Amino acid sequence: MSYCGLTSALVESAGKRQRGPISKQRNVHLQTVLVEAAKLAPRWNPQLAAVHERELQRGHRNRATLEVARKLVAYLLAVDKSGRPFQVRTAPATETEAQKVA
Fold it and tell me: Is position 98 within any domain?
């Protein structure tokens, strides 16, 4: 996350933590691509739309976009680790479908 530039700066002293703006130690190109993708992703993925909407309810559009970008990075890391293509998981409609998935 920090390599992608999606974490906030952290100042810690005497057991107190203070979070600041996004860290400037990052890959600027990767951050730009992820933020632009995060702006479009909620239109196409219902899970990302839910994340975006939840953060919008808290009141800050840019923070919602960052949260979606972080979720995209988590998806990318999971796909990279597993070596399998990305698949959107949906809730099975019936019990027999749930057994087929398992």
Answer: no
Nearest to 56 by CA among 72, 44, 38, 74: 38
Does 46 map to a domain?
yes
The rounded distance, in Å, linking the Cα atoms of 33 and 90 is 27
- Rounded to whole angstroms, the Cα distance separating 14 from 93 reads 52
The pLDDT mean for the chain works out to 81
Q: How many CB atoms lie within 10 A of CB 76?
A: 13
Structural domain total, the chain: 1
Helices (H) and strands (E) in the chain — how many of each? Answer: 4, 2
User: In terms of pTM, does the model score above 0.85?
Assistant: no
Flag whether 3 is in a domain.
no
- The size of the chain, in residues, is 102
Answer whether 53's CB lies under 8 Å from 32's CB. Answer: no
